[in-house]
From TrEMBL, chain A:
Oxidoreductase as UniProt keyword: yes
InterPro entries: 2Fe-2S-bd, 2Fe-2S-bd_dom_sf, 2Fe-2S_ferredoxin-like_sf, 2Fe-2S_ferredoxin-type, 2Fe2S_fd_BS, Beta-grasp_dom_sf, Diverse_Oxidoreductases
Listed name of the protein: Caffeine dehydrogenase subunit gamma
Gene that this polypeptide is encoded by: cdhC
Coiled coil regions, renumbered to chain: none
GO molecular function per UniProt: 2 iron, 2 sulfur cluster binding; caffeine oxidase activity; metal ion binding
The 2Fe-2S ferredoxin-type domain, residue ranges: 18-94
Keyword Oxidoreductase: yes
Pathway: Alkaloid degradation; nicotine degradation
Transmembrane segments: none
Protein keywords: 2Fe-2S, Iron, Iron-sulfur, Metal-binding, Oxidoreductase
Cited PROSITE patterns: 2FE2S_FER_1, 2FE2S_FER_2
Signal peptide: none
TrEMBL record, chain B:
EC number: 1.17.5.2
Protein known as: Caffeine dehydrogenase subunit alpha
Single GO MF descriptor: caffeine oxidase activity
InterPro entries membership: Ald_Oxase/Xan_DH_a/b, Ald_Oxase/Xan_DH_a/b_sf, Ald_Oxase/xanthine_DH-like, AldOxase/xan_DH_MoCoBD1, AldOxase/xan_DH_MoCoBD2, AldOxase/xan_DH_Mopterin-bd_sf
Pfam entry (one): MoCoBD_1
Top-level taxon in the UniProt lineage: Bacteria
Enzyme class: oxidoreductase
Length: 180, 799
């Protein structure tokens, strides 16, 4: 639910606060937030899930991409209160149940698909959703899959390679699908 | 035997953490900190008549507000001019918070500290400033006219004029059989790391220490600035650089105003304070680069050999000069590339404009220099009707001419002497890689299909590994694990991996047992920073030297324990053993125990160590010339820079209707000396090429006549997505080791971006058949050039 009535006022700022239940990576968090708190800020600062990064705050770079009921969304373009009750997956939720890196993460490591690593979480979530919809992409389809995310370090060649490698890992070990 | 790791494509140790979302960038630290937001000037040029902060004080959640009036001591003085130069006769820097005049949109005026960033920004919006708006100076032409001034006391807006000359260029040009002149332009671009600037500071009231975590390329530089400006002893200040989300130059400027204001507020308020820049702020208040206007006069012979070269250029340094003249000095010297003009003269003016400051951006002045030189080479080839590679080859410094002295002073004040390279071999490789000799056939085939294609190339030499020094510290623990520290920072280049590869080889220890820490002044107080493609050369060398010292000590103690000589020992997989008799062995961790005569048996290693007798009972446990512990520390300080080099070629297709420019092939031949890790080097090239594509075809800073940056967002400033970069980059390496450092290294970080403007201009010109003199070039600009060119053809040669 995203229409909770305000329950309290923040003593420090006087802002009205809302009780919000955020489902993230299979865990339910009960938080009390102002209506204007961005989902990206709530994940990072209220839940301590700092893997989701903020690169532009206007929805262009894709670093803050998380999965909302499995679909990639920009966490900087959404209020946390409007994500209430929906299933969120962040980069912290992409490892395999046994703790090993998920396929996309493993592929990035093998293919040198990251340098500074700041945009990486957004790529990982985006590709996770992309490979679920298209588990066997051509190189051109791999490019399309990441066409909305900015990276300033890698020049993208190795990220495209990583998409194809992740698909291959998924075919090699289909039972260990990433959590998303 | 342990496999040698130097030169292997080792997967990065950094990645696991970053891939799990466990990276620690500045904004991930200190979750309970107060947040700072900055009021920035909306005007490019104005006088501040008054600032009213009363309305801020009513905002719930605001803790403090600062203007220049609240600054005292050194904080109230202008920020440092980091790199003065005798020819920088009119250097100017801004205040941490503007005092009375502002000179660019985005200049910091006031800072609010509040319980969160939302409230801090609310409060910033309530500050009222009374301005007297002044006419701004925007663009190089306006600055050069000097009609309006940025700073009242800087005539002609000229911060500096610098000149260097070898031989007599003007006389040589006048006497040459052929002469050409070119007028060229390059626009501004910017580093744009995905993580903006950020600083968090904590004043520890118990220990009277200032701790600062900042997204910088120089921890030691920020430390010195914070200590100096806040009146602290250097020993009271720790600066720690955590994970950094990209730098590319913009994070070498130190201190940024916020890097001082945040610690100042943290001490005053007794609470941690954090500043995290947003993207618009990054556009309007960090730094840009590249903007230059150039004029070239050249004289040459029938073979295209340079006889005299005279270059004048005007460099837009923005509103202040905190980083001195580094960028234009590099342009003026690195312009020469792999060539040897017999006579060379260069003069530049560094000019003030009412726009964001200009500081080094990846490549740092070289892209403009290479652009000037390579446009000249193409012009000579066109004039003589010769192949562009032939004209270049006629001017190359030959392999047997190294070391080659260009007769100029480089950016570090030392002679511009190239240490090694093989330009003819590089050119042959590039031609093979891109299919240069076969291109006429491809062009003809394309023409037959109604398509327009063109090929271009560009060569560069890049001074890398600039001094003065870096240090390395290697410590073997009793567990056998090796802890390595170096002071320069890492912003994504894989330093932890590359440096661990070096240590693994030098010490003979497993790669997995090595941990590398960078950019922490608590571990490495003496350091310079990560810029100028210097990390591998400087810290890599220093770490190798430190590891060699450590190894010496290891072998000395082991020889004593095993009753042999160091020469008879080898280290294999973390164990010291007698050559040819590996059963006589001792673990590195055990030697670490032996190195410290404190003989408490903390662990199994200590127990094992007690089996060996150490030292002479008639002498002190720690000898006069020794110290406890298994550590080695050393510094590497080079005589001068080393010079990497390379060549790029691109094949483009231009759409006959829309003038859209498509990249068909991209090839790179690259010489950075010995490769530590080819995976990482190729990653650096990929990233550099992408930034180069951005600079050549898309990125520009769209200032209007009022000094407003009209494209200060990622929606309007076009950085390449995957759809804009070459699908594949063909790379070939040539390794001419540098004789200047122990590992034969040259820097590799910036090379990918340096020849881009030149190589694209060359290819587009080749496709279109008319000259390209201004970069970047958009499809609409190319379209307009076509119309202009057609019109000129119709008017005839005498029009």
């Amino acid at each position: 639910m995203s229409t909770h009535a305000p329950t309290q006022t923040d003593p420090a700022t006087g802002e009205e606060l809302h009780d919000v239940r955020l489902h993230v990576n299979g865990i339910v968090h009960q938080v009390r937030l102002p209506a204007r708190r961005l989902l990206s800020d709530a994940l990072r600062h209220d839940l301590g899930l700092t893997g989701t990064h903020v690169g532009c705050e206007h929805g262009v770079c894709g670093a803050c991409t998380v999965l909302l009921d499995g679909q990639p969304v920009r966490a900087c373009l959404m209020f946390a209160v409007s994500a209430a009750g929906q299933e969120l997956t962040t980069v912290e939720g992409l490892a395999q149940p046994d703790g090993r890196l998920g396929h996309v993460q493993q592929a990035f490591k093998e293919c040198h698909g990251l340098q500074c690593g700041f945009c990486t979480p957004g790529f990982l979530t985006t590709i996770t959703a992309g490979l679920r919809d298209n588990p066997d992409p051509t190189e051109d389809e791999a490019r399309d899959m990441i066409g909305g995310n900015l990276c300033r370090c890698t020049g993208y060649q190795n990220i495209v390679k990583a998409v194809c490698r992740a698909a291959e890992l998924g075919r090699l070990e289909p039972d260990q699908e990433d959590q998303s | 035997m342990t496999t040698k790791l130097f030169g292997q494509a080792v997967q990065r140790v950094e990645d696991d953490r970053l891939l799990r979302g466990n990276g620690q960038y500045v904004d991930d630290l200190m979750p309970g900190a107060l947040h700072a937001a900055i009021l920035r000037s909306p005007h490019a040029h104005a006088r501040i008549l008054g600032i009213d902060v009363d309305a801020v004080l009513d905002v719930d959640g605001v803790v403090a507000v600062y203007t220049h009036e609240d600054l005292d001591g050194a904080m109230a003085e202008p920020l440092p001019l980091l790199i003065p130069h005798p020819t920088l006769t009119h250097g100017r820097t801004q205040y941490a918070l503007a005092r009375d005049e502002i000179n660019y949109v985005g200049e910091a005026i006031a800072m609010v500290v509040a319980v969160d960033r939302y409230v801090a920004e609310d409060a910033v919006g309530r500050i009222h400033v009374d301005y007297e708006v002044l006419p701004p100076v925007v663009g190089i032409e306006n600055a050069r006219d000097g009609e309006l001034l940025v700073h009242d006391d800087v005539p002609g807006n000229r911060a500096a004029r610098m000149e260097q000359e070898v031989g007599d260029a003007e006389a040589a040009i006048a006497a040459a059989p052929h002469r050409l002149s070119l007028d060229l332009e390059v626009e501004r671009s910017a580093c744009m790391p995905m993580e903006g600037r950020g600083t968090v500071a904590r004043w520890d009231t118990d220990s009277h220490r200032m701790q600062v975590w900042t997204s910088t390329q120089t921890s030691s530089g920020v430390r010195a600035a914070v200590a100096a400006k806040l009146g602290l002893d250097l020993g009271q200040v720790d600066v720690i650089t955590p994970d950094v989300g990209g730098g590319f130059g913009v994070k070498i400027v130190h201190p940024w105003p916020e890097e001082l204001l945040v610690p100042m507020a943290a001490r005053a308020l007794g609470r941690p304070v954090k500043f995290i820049e947003d993207r618009r702020e990054h556009f309007i208040s960090s730094a840009h680069e590249r903007g230059q206007v150039q004029h070239v006069d050249v004289g040459f012979d029938d073979d295209g050999r340079l006889l005299g070269l005279s270059v004048q250029f005007w460099h837009d340094n923005g509103a202040y000069t905190p980083y001195g003249l580094i960028v234009p000095i590099i342009t003026s010297t690195q312009l020469l590339g792999p060539y040897k003009p017999a006579n060379y003269k260069v003069v530049f003016d560094s000019l003030y404009t009412n726009t964001v400051i200009v500081t080094p951006y990846r490549g740092a002045g070289r892209p403009q220099g290479v652009y000037a030189m390579e446009r000249t080479m193409d012009a000579i080839a066109a004039y003589l009707g010769k192949d562009r590679t032939v004209v270049r080859a006629a001017n190359f410094i030959q392999p047997d001419e190294f070391p080659y002295d260009q007769g100029l002073l480089f950016q570090d004040g030392r002679p511009l002497i190239y240490d090694s390279g093989d330009f003819p071999a590089s050119l042959e490789k590039l031609k093979a890689l891109v299919g240069w000799d076969d291109f006429e056939r491809i062009r003809d085939e394309a023409r037959a299909e109604g398509r327009t294609v063109g090929i271009g190339l560009a060569c560069y030499v890049e001074g890398t590994g600039v001094g003065p020094y870096e240090g390395g510290h290697v410590h073997i623990e009793t567990s056998g694990k090796v802890k390595v520290s170096t002071g320069l920072t890492s912003q994504g280049q894989g330093h932890q991996t590359a440096f661990a590869q070096i240590v693994a080889d030098e010490l003979g220890v497993p790669f997995e047992d090595i941990e590398v820490v960078t950019g922490d002044t608590r571990r490495s107080p003496y350091s310079v920073g990560t810029f100028a493609s210097r990390a591998a050369v400087m810290s890599g060398s220093a770490i190798a030297l430190a590891a060699r010292k450590t190894r010496e000590k290891v072998l000395r103690i082991a020889a004593d324990a095993l009753e042999t000589t160091p020469e008879d020992l080898e280290i294999v997989n973390g164990v010291v053993q007698v050559k040819g008799a590996p059963a006589s062995r001792i673990e590195l961790g055990t030697i670490a125990v032996l190195s410290n005569p404190l003989r408490y048996a903390f662990d199994e290693a200590s127990k094992a160590a007690t089996q060996f007798a150490v030292g002479d009972p008639t002498k002190p446990p720690v000898a006069d010339d020794d110290e406890p512990g298994l550590e080695g520390k050393d510094f590497y300080s080079p005589l001068r820079s080393t010079f990497a080099n390379g060549m790029h070629a691109v094949v483009v297709e231009t759409d006959p209707d829309t003038a859209e420019i498509t990249i068909l092939r991209y090839a790179v031949v690259h010489d950075c000396g010995n490769l530590i890790n080819p995976l990482i080097v190729e990653g650096q090239i990929h990233g550099g090429v992408a930034q180069g594509v951005g600079g050549a075809l898309y990125e520009r800073m769209a200032y209007n006549e009022h000094g407003q940056l009209e494209n200060a967002s990622f929606m309007d400033f076009l950085m390449p997505y995957v759809s804009e970069v070459p699908k594949h980059i063909e790379i070939d390496h040539i390794e001419t080791p540098s004789p200047l450092n122990p590992l034969g290294l040259k820097g590799a970080g910036e090379a990918g971006v340096i020849p881009s403007a030149a190589v694209f201009a060359s290819a587009i010109e080749d496709a279109e058949g008319f000259s390209i003199t201004s970069m970047p070039i958009s499809p609409s600009e190319l379209f307009a050039l076509r119309l202009h060119h057609e019109q000129k053809l119709q008017e005839g040669p005498h029009a």
